[in-house]
Amino acid sequence: MNKAIQYFGKIAFLSLTLLVGQSCSDDAKAPNDQELTQVEVQTILTSDQLASVADNALAELFADNGETAKTSKSNDCYVAEYTETGYTATFNNCVLNGTDNVNGTVTATYDTGGEATSFNVTFTDFYVGNIKLNGTRNFVVNGDMEGNSFSITVTSNMTIELADGSTIVENGNKTFTFSFGETLENFTIGLSGTWTIQANGNTYSIESSGIEADAQCGHFTSGSMVVSKNGLEVTVDFGDGTCDDKATVIYPNGATEEITL
Questions:
Q1: Which of 143, 208, 212, 215 is disulfide-compatible with 225, CB 3.0–4.6 A?
Q2: What is the pTM assigned to this prediction?
Q3: Kind of pairing between the strands at 187-199 and 220-229
Q4: Dihedrals phi, psi of 172, to nearest 5 degrees
Q5: Tens digit of pLDDT for each residue in 216-253?
Q6: Domain that holds residue 56
Q7: What are the two backbone dihedrals, phi and then psi, of residue 9, each rounded to the nearest 5 degrees?
Q8: What's the distance, Cα to Cα, between the start and end of the chain in Å?
Q9: Domain total for the chain?
């Protein structure tokens, strides 16, 4: 496996964990068909959060694949069996990175030919606490060392069953672009794509040509996305680059509402 792409893959997993792991506000009103609330925007932005609980371990497994192919690896949290094309990791009801207990199996297969590395991750009755994950996430990693940037495109077909029996379904494509400054800690994250989320009886269709976050800030701070909710189409504007946790929802009639991310 190309070492640079391997390294970028690990950083991508860790960066996605940082981006989607932000806490959500509690002071939000219940959604209805005539508005888009901050809770709904948080759901749209953090739908990857539950599936990404294992991303630190997946990053380690991803980086180790080139060195430990055809072998096994284990620690207190998981046992991994490698093949020439990927691995199967079984998590042993352990606490992973301070989160709820994780339990179940994740299978990953790789295609490392050419400049891009792609891999497919399948979750089968994978539990995070009382939350169950099923489905697939496909990742395509493109690296550009000379330009100090890389991108990772995630295609999701995931069903998340919550403890109360409700479900969140996500389908579609997201491209995360990572641009580094003088150090690895100083980088920006861009998000673009088209995806659909079904939650709480509502369907949200999202399209964005690009929103951007500064990793040190921890929130999206510029760009916009268009969200269609049950026929209502609004624009969510994340601002001019100022580091804050605010966004503006713009309705078809020109009315605006500030929300907290």
A1: 208
A2: 0.76
A3: unpaired
A4: 135, -170
A5: 787 889 999 999 998 889 999 999 999 898 999 999 99
A6: 3-192
A7: -60, -40
A8: 38
A9: 1
